[in-house]
Amino acid sequence: MQQVLFHIPVLKGTFPPDGIPIHGFGVMLFFTFIICVYVLARLAAKWGTNLPKDRVQDLVIVVFLGGLIGARVTYMIVEDKGWKQFLRIWEGGIVLYGGIITGMLAFLAFYHLFLKKAGVSLWRLADVAGPALALGIALGRVGCFLNGCCYGHVAPEQCPSVPFPLLTCPARDTVVDKQALQTPTGMTVHNSSEDMRSVVEHVEPGSAAERAGVRPGDRIVKVNGQPNGGVLVVVSEDPDAIKRATALATEQGATVADDSDTQSRRAKFVVEDPQKAGALKNKLNSDLLFRARVFDTDVFTDLINFWPRGHESLDLEVERNGQIVQLGAFTPRTLGLHPTQLYETVSMLLFTVFLISFHPFRRYDGQVFTLFIVGYAIHRFLNETLRNDTEIVGIPALNMTLSQNISILMLLFALGLEVARRVATRRLPRAENSTTSRKT
Question: Which residues share a beta bridge with 299?
Answer without folding.
Answer: none
